[in-house]
Hints:
By secondary structure, the chain is an alpha/beta fold.
Amino acid sequence: xxxxxxxxxxxxxxxxxxxxxxxxxxxxxxxxxxxxxxxxxxxxxxxxxxxxxxxxxxxxxxxxxxxxxxxxxxxxxxxxxxxxxxxxxxxxxxxxxxxxxxxxxxxxxxxxxxxxxxxxxxxxxxxxxxxxxxxxxxxxxxxxxxxxxxxxxxxxxxxxxxxxxxxxxxxxxxxxxxxxxxxxxxxxxxxxxxxxxxxxxxxxxxxxxxxxxxxxxxxxxxxxxxxxxxxxxxxxxxx
Length: 239
């Protein structure tokens, strides 16, 4: 399977979830890289992020449908649960659409339907913990793999500060296109942590960016929340 995703946190997540179901996974960082891979190799299914640099998921899918004449099933992934998004995906030539964060069992079922196979059974080796606070690990704990959980948490701690810095830089420069893009990217990461306060504020930043309005105040509020989130996540790491 080909996973087209620019967010390294989501790459790691999708790679693990699909490999656990027995799939061989190839990663592409954006649409242009995906097209080069599709010109050389064939895949049973493509998992396509929508918001990516250089070439987004819509244009990538249109290209593989019209120029490469590929009928490979494509399932879209997005952090934006907005009206009309699913229709837009289908019009671009995609076969299905899911919003991040997603339930792993539903994801397996959607893939099985597209491939006309039975969905793998997701066994849970321990009960999912329910944290009360600014985030929850319950979605990630559904996988039931402690080593994987520690790995993904370390990836969050490494990548989130860089993503936040990019968001702050775009805000200061009033580069609204980049501001929207980086808010979307962060929202996808925060969604898997079920950090509802952060995802709500990042959605607001996206709205402000679309309207070409100053978002510096809300960006700084997000920075404060991220500082607390990272502090809490560090305590989850098993030394």
